[in-house]
Amino acid sequence: MKRKYLFYLLVVLALGAFVSCDEFIEEDLEGKVVILTNPNDSLVTTYSTQVFNWDEIDGADWYNLQIVSKSFSQLDYYVLDTIVETNQFLFNLTPGVYQWRVRGENSGYVTPYSTRTIQIDSTSDLNGVTVILLTPSKLYSNNGSIGYRWQSIYNADQYVFEIRNENEFGTLVYMDTLTGTEVAEGAIVLNEGNYSWGVKAINSNSSTNYTYKALIVDTTAPRAPGIVNVDSLQGNNYTIQWNRTSNDVAVDSLYLYSNQSLTNIVLNKELLNPNYSDSLVDGTYYWKVKSIDKAENIGLFSKLNKLVIN
Predict the structure, then answer these.
(1) Is the pLDDT of residue 5 over 50?
(2) Which UniProt keywords apply (predicted)?
(3) Among the listed residues 54, 29, 17, the one whose alpha carbon sits nearest the alpha carbon of residue 39
């Protein structure tokens, strides 16, 4: 009888393990094909700015976009090979013939590539061209002297770079006309505040519109979290919580130790919310927390707190 029950127990455990593992199996992409939507195949155009679009595929977590000069069968050089998490990508090309292709991917599978051809003819007209801003790529920065960079445009002679307070209609803070495609780090120092930086390309007979991107400079670290306590304690299960004292916190970093000298760390987690629930074996623990804001400024630790599990 005991062997029979042991057999059933092993079957149940095996099935449980199978279901648990199955939760992490990626969706098979076999038989799925990326449908390219824009630009049209064999397009010939003078517009160097192109938006590459395709239909999303169920089960694909990202897409691999490649662009080459001439063709993949008669390769001249790779223009672009990048991972895109959405179903579109904006890029400027120089005059020439190109092939571009996209495939869907996840951590376990890939689709076949779907391929199209495009030809860019030369023109001096900058109308309809977009300046693509590259860095800073994030909205927040904890450095007021960062550098700026944008993608070059083949028929541009110069670029007009500017920074304005608040938004593109705000007070002008800085302006310069450049032949290159970057402003070196440290060339401009901004105080804390909200800004918009933009670039337009110009030549002797035309210009693009400005392209703008928002920028928030924040160099102040968040204050230490306040009133920290144990919200609930049931046996070996616990929930702890704290109050954020700054409005722009991105995550809180929680540290839990098994000794008061803080040499034996039990866990360190970054948390989106100001609370944490888990279970521990019997013992006395000590924990503290600090906040990290959206600009990646790191704040001070809270006071050290005691947690007793018994």
Answers:
(1) no
(2) Signal
(3) 54
Interatomic CA distance for residues 120 and 127, integer angstroms: 15
Q: ω into residue 222 within 30 of 0, thus cis?
A: no
> Is the Cβ–Cβ distance between 289 and 253 less than 8 Å?
yes
pLDDT band at 235 (very low <50, low <70, confident <90, very high): confident
The pLDDT > 90 percentage for the chain reads: 82
The residue ranges of every structural domain in the chain are 36-120, 133-217, 226-309
Buried b / exposed e over 98-132, threshold 16 CB at 10 Å, is: bbbbbbbbbeeeebebbbbbbebeebeebeebbbe
> Quick one: CATH architecture of 226-309?
Sandwich (2.60)
E strands, 34-144, are: 36-38, 43-45, 49-54, 62-70, 75-84, 88-92, 96-105, 114-120, 133-135, 140-141
- Architecture of the domain spanning 133-217: Sandwich (2.60)
pTM: 0.79
Closest CA to 113 of 122, 100, 127, 129: 100
CB 126 within 8 A of CB 156: yes
